Amino acid sequence: MIANLLDFDPAALERLFAQLGEKPFRARQVLRWIHQRGEADFARMSDLAKSLRDKLREAARVAAPAVVGDSVAADGTRKWLLQVDGTNAVEAVYIPEAGRGTLCVSSQAGCMLDCAFCSTGKQGFNRNLSTAEIIGQLWIANRELRRAPGRARAVTNVVMMGMGEPLLNLEQVIPALRLMLDDHAYGLSRRRVTVSTSGVIPGMDRLRDECPVALAVSLHAPDDALRDRLVPVNRKYPIRELLAACRRYLEEAPRDFVTFEYVMLEGVNDGEQCAHDLVAIAAQVPCKINLIPFNPFPKAAFRRSEPARIRRFAEILQRAGITVTTRKTRGDAIDAACGQLAGDVADRTRRSRSTRPARKVHPLTELPA
Ligand code: SAH
Ligand code: SF4
Are 199 and 218 in contact (CB under 8 A)? Predict the structure, then answer.
């Protein structure tokens, strides 16, 4: 079988090279060609011996998902639609800001956790993305940004906040994270790579042990009754246990706080009592809170909270000494703002070969640099 080198984290690539009778530093050289220079053609890896290039041509390839859509908004936000197989496509979004460029990356086609306000959840689950399909989003973004004229800069931050629950696909996500962090690949610091979870506790513990990076937790409600409704995985992993898992995570985390994400749903979780209850939660874990104005999608059962209500909510938290940010909406014009992303996800129920447009809710983020 021909190996796709985008599936290999640094250690796995060294093992593959050992099997090919090659030294570990050769693997690192190839990592740099692939991930730093964006080279997919072994013939052009000019400082490798011809014998190695020939071996690689026989045994391996570098294959990223195909770009089937590419749009740029006036504010520079750029969205790629990436075909991963005959029926599935996912999106990656690049958000340029002063001094950094953040890429929002998907981990699954669809999601099985069915949060009430999330259109990915409404579609159900199709499949896990492979490591190559996950790191391929970053590989493609850097390649496309290099080609872009003018001010576009390479990706400096990654947030695993696209489609899917990354902690339910750690087998593939962890090697991708290792590539993001490795100096011979993307060389990002652990503080600039963020995994967002709806609260899959075993996954949080495993990430902590195997590859701790910055953590965002989608809280969305300050009590179990409401959270059970909005984030059904709460029935399995309730808030009390979730907070304990956050504290365990922080023992190894590269940052000394967790970011709690809180989607603002008009009349549902945006009242003053909720804000006060949230203050009580925030007292239990070192955290920052990121308020996300809800982004509607067709047939959504919620509305976005009015700006004045969001301000009032934020004010209560701030008065209690909590650091609060409210997420800006970016890229509306190209449907890349929170709640506007569309990927094609196969219809599981009819198992048809056809694709239908799927609305993906995206949380273009303002996590700290
Ligand atoms: N599954 C992970 C990561 C992907 S979702 C998680 O849930 O954390 C990334 C973020 O977008 C989460 O905080 C999620 O709750 C939020 N989100 C989902 N639907 C949204 C919507 N319609 N409007 C605004 N944010 C939404
Ligand atoms: Fe899945 Fe996250 Fe959407 Fe919930 S919010 S359904 S966990 S992608």
Answer: yes
Instruction: Show the domains of the chain with their CATH numbers.
Output: 3-61 (1.10.150.530), 66-366 (3.20.20.70)
Sequence-ordered alpha helix ranges (H) in 82-192: 119-123, 131-147, 170-181
Residues with CB under 6 A from ligand 1: 115, 117-118, 161, 165, 196-198, 218, 261, 263, 292, 294-295, 338-339, 361, 363
Q: Is 274 a catalytic residue?
A: no
Separation of 363 CA from ligand 1 center, angstroms?
6
pLDDT digits (tens, 9 = 90+) for 58-84: 999 999 999 999 999 888 899 999 999
For residue 326, the SS3 value is strand
Q: Does the annotation mark 338 as catalytic?
A: yes
Encode pLDDT of 96-145 as tens digits. Answer: 998 999 999 999 999 999 999 998 888 899 999 999 999 999 999 999 99
Active-site annotation holder among 91, 133, 165, 261? 91
- The ligand 1 atom at the shortest distance from the C-alpha of residue 118 is 19
In sequence order, which residues have a C-beta less than 8 Å from that of residue 46 and are 6 or more positions away? none
The sign of the dihedral angle between the CA atoms of 171, 184, 61, 80 is: positive
- Report the separation in Å between the CA atom of 362 and the middle of ligand 1, taken as the mean of its atom positions: 6
